[in-house]
Amino acid sequence: MLGQDRIICHCDVNGHFAYSSLIYYPELLDVPVVIGGSEEARHGIVLSKNQAAKRYKIPTGTTLHQARQLCPDLKSLPPVYSLYERTSQDFYAFMQQFSPLSAPFGCDGMSIDITSTAHLYGGGERSIEGVEAIVRQLHEIYPKQYGLNLSIGISWNFTFAKLACDTAGANGIKWIMRESPEDTSWQEQVFPLPVGELLYIGGKTQNKLWRKSIDTIGDLVRIGPEYLHDWFGKVGLGHYIRATGNDNSPIVAEDGGPPMRTIGNGSTTPCDLISEHEIHCMAHVLASSVCRRMRAHKVVPHTVGVFVSYTKDGDMRYESFQCPMPVPSNIDSEFADVALRLLHKRFNLRHPIRKLGLCGKDLSFNTSVYQLSFELDAMRREKLMDIAACTDELNGRWRHAMRRCVELADPRLTMLGSKSSQQFAPAGWY
Description:
Elements: E1 8-13, H1 16-22, E2 33-36, E3 46-49, H2 51-54, H3 64-70, E4 75-77, H4 81-96, E5 102-104, E6 109-113, H5 128-146, E7 150-155, H6 158-167, E8 173-176, H7 187-190, H8 203-211, H9 217-223, H10 225-232, H11 234-243, E9 262-273, H12 276-296, E10 299-312, E11 315-324, H13 332-346, E12 353-365, H14 378-397
Helix pairs in contact: 10-11, 12-13
């Protein structure tokens, strides 16, 4: 019998991009294959790889040129995003049949809360038989129907379910469970793991912890919340709560707010952005993509974020900035204007830009209510909102039928911001 804890199941599709494409190239299944972008457009990086390519320890995100140095016989296939969107939707639909409480984690991951539905698949209330039956269907039926394998993690909270899934291996199943809140046997599984395996501990945070001799999740717990708060603020307390198994965040937003916290888009450009005209065009291309998705979700941003990648002294550098919006807005021109002012103020075009990205943060549902001021032309703003709604409706019928003139000013940049869907993590993970 299971205790009184929740039962959370998290699944990731193994090599989603690679194996979705290999369904149509079965002769390449045992050949090292990666999914890579266009090298001519400077998008030639490894997006995904099959198991044969993983044996050569090719890092995701490395250039195709570097990948071929590790594996001279490497085959590269172009990405087909329409295919990945379809396989993602199939994956989501398969997972959602087991529980109405579900939330996607990227295009190839999903968490489901099966606490109140597991008994429908065998056994009684709080019985392990129903959970095992669901896991069996995920592990056996899904690959037969869709040709893709899943890694599966089961635990009593989101963090450990994701941790179990990440450490289960390809097509693996891992349980991190306890019989009661007093049971500490799970610590033997979790505490020896590298600290970087814990959710939301990235490379920079991991390096800071290493410098303080914190190598494992157990070390993180033993150092205590006080030190972590001193080092990282409230983020450090979040790391401690997740590492101790006390993450009780819901799988869906309970406050009635939007299910995501940011919506953004960035792209590496075919050439370095040097002139103000090029940067102006690129910002409006990205703003149109971001604002279109915000309007689709009926949200407005209170904060604008800008991130740039550039080359200095032969090294790639990255910087990001953010500022509040005078009036929360998902209108393309207003969003782009704030982003451009921020970019000019903080970055000041010091170096040629290789990659530019924009995002809206601190999202709230759009109530169409905003503060009037003498600096704000309310009549003009109402017209812009009507035009945006009309444009979205027409583009919904005929994809990209209408585009802003500034988006067409530079043919090289026109389609870089096109992104039809938004993948996000559930609010409970933030």
